[in-house]
């Protein structure tokens, strides 16, 4: 019965989605709508596989992309998306995007990050039970994923030493600029 209900819901959403259009929210993904895990930023981006309408056209300029099979081997669990200050409060919606969690179970016990509205023109929810480590997990692209598996997206996280090198370079430019004296003529 659950399968039939989910199938009819998915077919209705797919029919409504039609061709790819702009996402519901065209802005950089808010920092409380994704997590950093294993040297990558991870966003819970879509309640179905990417081929069913995930839109990366705007977010790709910020480095968001589909994860590789190797990255998915070390993907976070759904519970890793729970943290104080996450964009979707428990039992509520994100005031900025309208994102919410559907199909929740007892493992959703606090605020959690859902970024679907940044990657879809027709969905603003994440299916909690379809996340990694949940009853209908794993994520799409992992072995054993079903046709309704939720889709993650990733981007590289600049490492702290990259920022340190940038600051050192800017400091060096400042020192060189101060030492130069204008030519008098």
List the helices and strands and how they pair.
Layout: H1 2-17, E1 35-37, E2 40-46, H2 69-73, E3 100-102, E4 125-127, E5 151-156, H3 160-179
Parallel strand pairs: 3-4
Antiparallel strand pairs: 1-2, 2-5
Features:
alpha+beta, 12% strand, PEP-CTERM sorting domain-containing protein, 185 residues, Ice-binding_C, single chain, signal, 5 strands, globular, disordered N terminus
Describe this structure in words.
With 185 residues, the chain is α+β, with helices and mostly antiparallel strands. The protein has one domain (22-179). It has three helices and five strands, in the order H-E-E-H-E-E-E-H. It has helices at 2-17, 69-73, 160-179; strands at 35-37, 40-46, 100-102, 125-127, 151-156. A hairpin with a 2-residue loop joins strand 1 and strand 2 (40-46). The radius of gyration is 20 Å and the shape is globular. The protein starts with a helix and ends in a 6-residue tail after the last helix. Mean pLDDT is 83; it is low at 1-20.
């Amino acid at each position: 019965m659950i399968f039939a209900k989910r199938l009819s819901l998915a077919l209705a959403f797919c029919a409504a989605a039609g061709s790819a259009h702009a996402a519901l929210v065209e802005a950089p993904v808010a920092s409380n709508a994704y997590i950093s895990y294993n040297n990558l930023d991870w966003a819970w981006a879509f309640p179905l596989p990417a081929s069913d309408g995930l839109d990366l056209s705007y977010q790709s300029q910020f480095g968001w992309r589909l994860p590789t099979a190797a990255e998915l081997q070390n993907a976070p669990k759904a519970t890793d998306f729970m943290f104080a200050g996450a964009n979707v409060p428990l039992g509520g919606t994100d005031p900025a995007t309208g994102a919410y969690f559907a199909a929740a179970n007892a493992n959703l016990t606090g605020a959690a990050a859902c970024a679907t509205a940044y990657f879809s023109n027709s969905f603003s929810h994440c299916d909690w039970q379809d996340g990694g480590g949940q009853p209908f997990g794993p994520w799409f692209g992992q072995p054993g994923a079903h046709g309704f598996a939720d889709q993650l997206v990733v981007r590289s996280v600049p490492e702290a030493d990259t920022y340190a090198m940038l600051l050192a370079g800017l400091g060096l430019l400042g020192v060189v600029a101060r030492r130069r004296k204008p030519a008098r003529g």
